[in-house]
Amino acid sequence: MISLELKKEKRTGLTAVLLISGILGAAYVLVNFAIRGDSLLSMPANPMDILLTQLYGIVMVINMFAIVVATSIAYNMEYAGAAVKKMYVLPISMKKIYSSKFLIILTAFLVSVAFEGLALAWIGANRLGPGAFRPDVFLLFMLYTYITSLPVASFMLFISSLSENIWVTIGIGVGGFLSGMALVNMSDSILMMLHPFIIMFKPAVAMSAEINGTVMSVAIIETVMFFIAGIIGSSKKKAE
Amino acid sequence: MNEYVIETNNLTKRYKNFVSVNNLSIHIKRGSIYGFLGPNGAGKSTTMKMLLGMSKPTGGDFMIDGKRMPEERIAILKEIGSFIESPSYYPNLTGRENLEIIRKILGLKKSDVDEALEIVGLTEFGDRLVKKYSLGMKQRLGLAGALIGKPPILILDEPTNGLDPAGIHEIRNLIKRLPQMFNCTIMISSHMLSEIELVADDIGILNHGNLLFEGSLDDLRLEAGKRGYGDQNLEEMFLSMIDEDNAFRKQRAVI
């Protein structure tokens, strides 16, 4: 199923946009630290916190837009030439198609995050000073940022599967980004965290690289919730 | 083995106050070409969509080669090649790559792709991106997608739409040859009797979701004779039948 989906995605740029975002994010981290590294490290904070939180803001925005574009492409290619109608009449499960798209996006995004992580790790090992770089803190933070990005991926794929017009999907993604940015610092209530974009913003606005267990748990629950909604939605849409 | 490959029993599709297909019972014989006729909006596509599991019936049921939908959806769809309303394709892929996707899903041989392209006359355009295809070429690709792997049942909804006269002639001849070539059963819809009478063994005439007639073309001539339509021009017979039904409906609506 995965190989079939990869064949369908040929020339759409779906995986490319995620991989390029990873390279861009890594380049941003390296260039930014090359220019502002000394002033960043002179800040009165833990060097690991500086490394992981001060650079993540822009990296997160790049990731967020890459996710919005990739998820929009994922179903636009099905709707553009009404290919999905052919899929409906072939002996194939729409749930499997949805799951494969989800898995491809998550994997490509993981590679993208790994590129960014490599850049951060290089800076950590070479610029923070002897003994300052802590691989355990670094790996946990990377895992944290990856998991908190998943609700947006899950939500956007769900929206993309419902909307036949790519501009509606992208519009919802941009709306999510703007509203998430506006609301992220307003409250820490769980209700606010139902907004998947706010979850993704959380590590970017934190002052420490410490993991917030509540944010992480809500992220996992939302990811699963939107995934299930997408699975149900894709099979229901087929029925009419 | 059942004589009928497709058999519907009071199949109905209702949308709130509108009945698209009303208690439809059709019988399609194994190895035959069944022409499904009716004006636009008669319910032909809706019926075909129900048969393919794309739309859920609100009443009645049907059997395809002894199997029931939705319980045996995958088994049914493995046996059917279909073309519904308009061609469906991935514009970012070439014609060959599009068929390759279908081939993989159906678990067919690699050579089936080339064979399907050849049947519809697209071999030389197989490596061109589908977004650069003309409407007629997309239509042919849609047909290739239905024919790939020689399925035992073909459901074709207005397959000659968008083709030029030469293309129509070519596809019509192809459809006529298919039962012998593939040993398959074909259900083909059109709103033109002149189109269907050249290929079909049996026909079903649908109007406002109701089946007005089912039988062979000879049966239709006999029926037309009985009703006083005249039996020379089948197109006229078909139109008279539809007009009479429409007039009857109008009268009933006034009462």
Please supply descriptive tags for the structure shown above.
heterodimer, A: 240 residues, mainly alpha, 10 helices, 79% helix, B: 255 residues
Question: Could you characterize what this model shows?
Answer:
The complex is a heterodimer of chains A (240) and B (255). Chain A has 240 residues and is an all-alpha fold. Helices cover 79% and strands 0% of the residues of chain A. Chain B contains nine helices and eleven strands. Chain B has helices at residues 44-51, 73-79, 95-106, 111-119, 135-147, 165-182, 193-196, 217-227, 234-254; strands at residues 4-15, 18-24, 27-29, 33-37, 59-64, 67-68, 80-83, 153-157, 185-190, 202-207, 210-216. Chain B starts with a strand and ends with a helix. The interface between A and B is medium-sized, with 22 and 34 residues.
Side by side, the strands of the main sheet of chain B go: 7-8-9-4-10-11
How many angstroms does the end-to-end distance of chain A come to? 24 Å
Instruction: Spell out the helices and strands of chain B N to C.
Output: EEEEHEEHEHHHEHEHEEHH
Helix content of chain A: over 70%
Count of helices of chain A? 10
Q: Classify the helix fraction of chain B into a percent range.
A: 40-55%
Largest interface: A-B, 22 and 34 residues
Order of helices and strands of chain A: HHHHHHHHHH
Globular, elongated, flat, extended or rod-shaped: what is the shape of chain B?
globular
- Number of helical stretches of at least 4 residues of chain B: 9
Strand element count of chain B = 11
**What is the makeup of the main sheet of chain B?**
6 strands, mixed
- Round the Cα radius of gyration of chain A to an integer and report it: 19 Å
Average pLDDT figure of chain A: 90
Global geometry of chain A: elongated
Average pLDDT number of chain B = 87
Radius of gyration of chain B (CA) equals 19 Å
Q: Tell me the quaternary state.
A: heterodimer
